[in-house]
Amino acid sequence: MPKMTDIQCYSMFFIISFVSTLVIRSFSKKTNRTHFHLPPGPRPLPIIGHLQLITFPLDQFYQKLSTKYGPIIYLQFGASKQIIISSASLATEIFKTQDLAFASRPPFAVEDRLTFIASSFLYSDPQALEASSGVRRQGLRSFLQKIVESASLLKPVDVGLELLKLTNNIICTMAMNTNCSSNDDEAEKCRKLVQETFEQALKLTIGDVLGPFKWLGFWIYGKQAVNLERRFDGMVENILKQHEEKREENSKTSQYKDLIDVLLEMHYDNQAEFKLTRTQIKSFLLDIFVAGTDTSANTMQWTLAELINHPKVFKKVREEIDSLVGNSRLVEESDISSLPYLQAVMKEILRLHPLGSLIPRKCREHCKLDGFDIPKNTTILINTYAAMRDPNLWDDPNEFKPERFLISKDTEKTLARQDQMEGQLLDLLTFGGGRRRCPGMMLAFHTMSPTVAAMVQCFDWTPIEEGREVDVVNMEVRKGLNHVMEQSLVCTPRVRLNPLDCIA
Ligand code: HEM
């Protein structure tokens, strides 16, 4: 049978959605709207709801709707119903005041058929972060080496790709202590497998528009997803076995423990309050790879792009590093807390370019939000892209102005923001909030800040477009679900301070 294209599949979904909703409607007497005081939204068409309105990037589509209908809107795509939140105050209400009620995630369309893809749990381990600084230093060294090589040949380098390899190597080594950092192919194989598995699982979510017929989504895409999951299972199972063989040996020495060692300890500990199953270990690893690699790499890519387009900011970051570090050594993780302007740049990037800008949650029980009813099990999408460009909260919300994060006690407004910034960085919704807030936030900062600092300290960058040197980076956003650059950032680097000469 010839393979169906995505367009054919979407069309088929659409037709099935149309027919199935007709059937469901004919059996049901009343819709939710008659029972509940739901948030406002555009007038839905019969059956398909708002499907015909969708444009990409999705976060910008929702942002436009929110300027017309307000910070909380109700949308319906076939049988799938969503509430979109676009203001920081409502997001904060979800993350803080009603954290427990909104702590679940919407399930994948066919979660019962995919074991690891469907489950996940919270993780946080600050000590492991400290213990793993050597892994990050080693990863950064390989990255800088690659840039120096390109610079010496005056060869353009795909910065986006190199950053992705860097974060992938760091996560691989921290999680599994495999030879990923010395063997790029192994890390790349792992990254591709995880990426394919996740993309396939995302396609399955389209089935949500079919309501009770969502299993049809599995019928079209599920086989490939199951195959990918099996391959991931095989790869991780091998790594688990290698770790189990070494467990005895390692327990007698004080060797560095990677994440799998720690998870296996929890798996084998009979006294443990919470006993981890093998499947939970695997799904956790999948979470870490999916959530931890592209996010940090893409954020760093946005950072370099904004810095190239704002030479004055670039110069200021460099001057700050030079005055603290001088030119005889490479900037280090431990310097970051003494570089306030660099920190302000990182926060401004996270405000303007939040990766995963639509945070999915589900409410466990019937709730009220801003006076509206939120029926139990409704999918909520928190649009951090819109919330962090809210003109009521930020001056010149679309401008790259790191100074806004430099805390001065001059004005009342700044002081109010200072209060908010302390603790959980509440202004920055980029990492979500409450009990499901990103557990990798600190790791992300520890990876991104020294890398960006080293890129500024050691190199000048000229962007390349269609093979030619240009002055400005094209900041177009890819028309998809995530806030990533349309094109990978390619630059010619020129060495200003050779990092290899000053790494101890
Ligand atoms: C710039 C980098 C990153 C950004 C912008 C980011 C953003 C996010 C966001 C928005 C969420 C959802 C939070 C919520 O629902 O409230 C999340 C969840 C998560 N992140 Fe990150 N993240 C980043 C880096 C990382 C890293 C480095 C790791 C780990 C290696 C990681 C692991 C996770 C995991 C496991 C979850 C799921 C938590 C759960 O469902 O309970 N993230 N991240």
From TrEMBL:
It is found in: Membrane. It is a single-pass membrane protein. Pfam families: p450 (PF00067). Heme binds at C438. Its main location: membrane. PROSITE patterns: CYTOCHROME_P450. Belongs to the cytochrome P450 family. PANTHER family: 3,9-DIHYDROXYPTEROCARPAN 6A-MONOOXYGENASE, CYTOCHROME P450 98A9. This is Cytochrome P450. It comes from Coffea canephora.
